[in-house]
Design brief:
The protein is an all-alpha fold and 153 residues long. Helix content is 74%, strand content 0%. Helix 2 packs across helix 3, helix 3 packs across helix 6 and helix 4 packs across helix 7. The relative contact order is 0.13.
């Protein structure tokens, strides 16, 4: 893969990387650090990528590993107010959903974000998180139930 192709693919994945890292870290500066670290790691480990069509999945997996390391290192929680303001017309709904997502355990939240926000398939999430397909499906189900309960109250 050439530098130009790598740069193009990273730029195409930029929004996904930001949203995934923000869903896990909930802090702008930590999120930026994680994305930069993931991109640098991906560039250094580019030789381990077997097929170019799986670049985005591979890069998201690297990002999730970086975020998990950062969470384990920091061992802290950040308030929902650290999320950037929603710019869509339904900002109130978005804030409610973000608050409900905030309440989910990290393992459920990451699956919900990857599936519903980033549009990864169950099989892609299985590959990204290195967990069985049944685990992805059960986390999606449990996450949906908890979100529904949180949003109804």
């Amino acid at each position: 893969m050439t530098k130009e192709t790598f740069t193009k693919l990273v730029l195409e994945s930029e929004r996904t990387l930001y949203r995934v890292s923000m869903s896990m870290l909930k802090n702008e500066s930590d999120c930026e650090d994680a994305v930069q670290t993931a991109i640098l790691t991906a560039y250094e480990k580019l030789g381990t990528l077997k097929k170019e069509e799986f670049f985005k999945t591979w890069l998201v997996r690297i990002l999730i590993n970086v975020c998990n390391k950062q969470l384990n290192h920091n061992k802290r929680f950040i308030d929902i107010s650290d999320y950037p303001e929603a710019s869509e017309p339904s900002a109130d709904v978005n804030v409610d959903v973000k608050i409900a997502l905030e309440k989910l355990p990290v393992k459920l939240r990451e699956v919900i974000v990857l599936y519903y926000i980033e549009d990864f398939s169950v099989k892609e999430i299985t590959s990204i998180l290195s967990i069985p397909e049944g685990t992805v499906k059960s986390r999606l189900s449990k996450g949906r139930d908890l979100l529904r309960k949180s949003l109804e109250s």
